[in-house]
Amino acid sequence: MSQAAEYIRKNRSTYLDQLQELLRIPSVSTDPARRSDVRKAADWVVARLKRAGCTRVEIEDTPGHPIVYGEWLGAPGRPTVLVYGHYDVQPVDPVELWHTPPFEPTVRDGRIYARGASDDKGQFIIHVNALEAHLQTSGRCPVNVKYLIEGEEEIGSDHLGAYLASHKRQLACDAVVVSDTAMFGPGVPSICVGLRGLAYLQVDVRGTSRDLHSGSFGGAVINPANALTGMLAGLKNSKGKITIPGFYDRVRKLTAAERKGFATLPHSDASFKRAIGAPALWGEAGHTTLERLWARPTLDINGMWSGFTGEGAKTVIPAEAHAKISMRLVPDQSPDEIATLATRHLMKIAPPAVKVTVQRLHGGQPWIAPADHPALVAAGRALHRAFGKKPVFVREGGSIPVVADFSRLLKVPCVLMGIGLNDDNLHAPNEKLELDNFYRGNEAAAHLMDELGRDPAAPRPVAVKQGGPAKTGRRSKK
Ligand code: BES
Ligand code: MN
Ligand code: MN
């Protein structure tokens, strides 16, 4: 075992204590009432980066929440790694469903429960701990490290784009490393090579100037809720295909090798169904569950509201109806183009008796690991060392929009080395992180620095084929 990994094992309880400290700060980025708590979390990250040994740490205020930057550049001639993560978290509602309070981190059954445990406080911090472990044991780190930890990921990273553009030189690196995804399953270390993008819209439908008595007026005017549900119902057909003209035009078809790669992963529809409590699985005809999740676009209503929803009955024709709709996108769809196509289509199918407006809320490009890269091989070795198993290559149905921006702006590979699990309850009550994954993740992050720093110029074997996983390695033993 390396000295750094040994240091991490010895200091497990310190690292757990520190994580708990961060988890106690309710940095809910979407909640204006939590603005100062978000700031507190940023300040905590600043202090932690300094203590870990970063020689330069800055906090950049934005019109939203602060961006934290840190660096340790004491390995001239060695590669430079940029670690990205987010210290903001999702809201906690419905809070009554939490078994213990979301901002009072609690260890039970080998897990730590708290909002942000897995998304993303307990994940990005492993790379900070790893730097500290190297510096504490050998006084140096095998690579140069930069940290970019933001506070607006959960609300669309609105101010990160401008920061990236104006700090391009400062952020220059040889690889980006992100831990903000899930492993394929318990005990299955994974490298994520694809993320879906996102186009998120709000549709507002307005009828009359005020709510009306549904007896006095019903029949003579359109009901915006009926109009909206009719419009939305037509957006998907019975085979699960989205009916917006042009929606699929740029969807990259899976290659036979990619489909085979997905199919060799240890996935079971039966246990997936059980795990999420679904009576049956449903999705686009002609595709497996993993294909539907990772490589096919979706359209989902995320919320709808209109009229009377309280106890009992109220006979009313609502003046307005609203829906939030998200579309998860795959290469080579563009969020702007899809938002335009969807808006145009909604306008076209809207009954003339209502007024419809469509707002764009979030957008994010889909991403796929662009080419075979030694950084992915290095991550594979690091995970192998920490978890005792070769990792599998997976994709993710969720979105981390900045990853595509990094690829485009910095022109470097992104290594997505998540240590979460799909049952970590991200964005839901009782979010948790497995402590075993946390501890091994710290070690994997330390090994990754070793692996990336080793023989920086030497050519390395190729592991991932263009566009997706070529081999899974899941059957290999230690
Ligand atoms: N860490 C998640 C992305 C993710 C989700 C990874 C599920 C693995 C599994 C990230 O914090 C997130 O929630 N992203 C949002 C993006 C949106 C707010 C722009 C998402 O996917 O909904
Ligand atoms: Mn996240
Ligand atoms: Mn999230």
Coarse structural class: alpha+beta
Task: Work out the number of β strands.
Answer: 20
Main beta sheet, described?
A: 6 strands, mixed
Shape: globular
Q: What strand order characterises the main sheet?
A: 1-2-6-3-7-17
Mean pLDDT: 94
Unreliable stretches: 456-478
User: What small molecules does the structure contain?
Assistant: ligand BES, manganese (II) ion
Describe this structure in words.
There is one protein chain. This protein has 478 residues and is an alpha+beta fold. Helices cover 32% and strands 21% of the residues. The chain is built from 13 helices and 20 strands. The strands form 6 sheets. Strands 1-2-6-3-7-17 form a 6-stranded mixed β-sheet, with helices on both faces. β1 (56-60) and β2 form a beta hairpin. The longest helix is centred in the last third of the chain and has 19 residues, at 435-453. It is globular. The two termini are 14 Å apart. Mean pLDDT is 94; it is low at 456-478. Bound molecules: ligand BES and manganese (II) ion (2 copies). One manganese (II) ion is lined by residues 86, 119-120, 153, 180.
In brief, what are we looking at here?
The protein has 478 residues and is of the alpha+beta class.
Give the secondary structure arrangement, pairings included.
Blueprint: H1 3-10, H2 12-23, H3 35-52, E1 56-60, E2 67-72, E3 80-86, E4 106-108, E5 111-113, H4 121-138, E6 144-150, H5 160-166, E7 175-178, E8 190-195, E9 197-206, E10 212-213, H6 224-233, H7 256-263, H8 269-276, H9 289-294, E11 300-306, E12 316-317, E13 320-329, H10 335-349, E14 355-364, E15 367-368, H11 374-387, E16 392-396, H12 402-410, E17 414-416, E18 432-434, H13 435-453, E19 464-465, E20 468-469
Parallel strand pairs: 3-6, 3-7, 7-17, 8-16
Antiparallel strand pairs: 1-2, 2-6, 4-5, 5-18, 8-15, 9-13, 9-14, 10-12, 11-13, 19-20
The structure holds ligand BES and manganese (II) ion (MN) (2 copies).
